[in-house]
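Table S2 (text version). Query chain:
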Amino acid sequence: MAKLLVFDWDGTLCDSLSRIVTCICLAAEEIGLPAPHHDAAKDIVGLGLIDALERLFPGIESEHILAMRDSYSRHFVEQDREPSPFFDGVMETLESLHQQGYLLTVATGKSRRGLDRVLKARGLDNFFHGSRCADETAGKPDPKMLLELMGEFQVAPEQTLMVGDTEFDLAMAVSAGVPRVAVSYGAHHPERLLKYQPLACIDQFSLIDGVIENYKKQIIK
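Corresponding structure-token output:
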């Protein structure tokens, strides 16, 4: 049965995609690069920032990468003074899972500084049992985030669930041998997510509780 639940942040728990895309475009324009198309910018959400920028701007020089990273971070902090909202039902569902005794963790492309800032702003500093960020370990889709979290809590892959909205989340889970759940309301289209054979592809976060219960029954059988 599942013991360790690992959630992506942006696009899975937090409705922040439009803000991220806006800040990427502002940062590009600020350093003299053409703003990427909305869909292209949305497509790289979930990667670590450096990886994301290198995919968006192939061949970009390293000094432009660093300048854009700094510009993006500044714009995001300015726009995120009031944190982006959670999707409907997220906090209630997380609290229910917490009360049921699950280990709740986050694996995100955000920086450690960025995740800690938003957790503090929401009063969730001590809510999650653990987390991994892209600037402190290998970023998605490398499985290292999941492997480190499973090692920290001494939980086997079959006792772990990864929940995310992008191919990067699900590919990471596949590489780590971890069952996965896709959410259809985030950055990537459900058709792309279904290639990774998730236990379910849900259109409301609150449905995750039922998916977990069904998975527990399968394991018991």
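Notes on Table S2: The chain has two domains: 4-15+85-220, 17-79. The mean pLDDT is 94.
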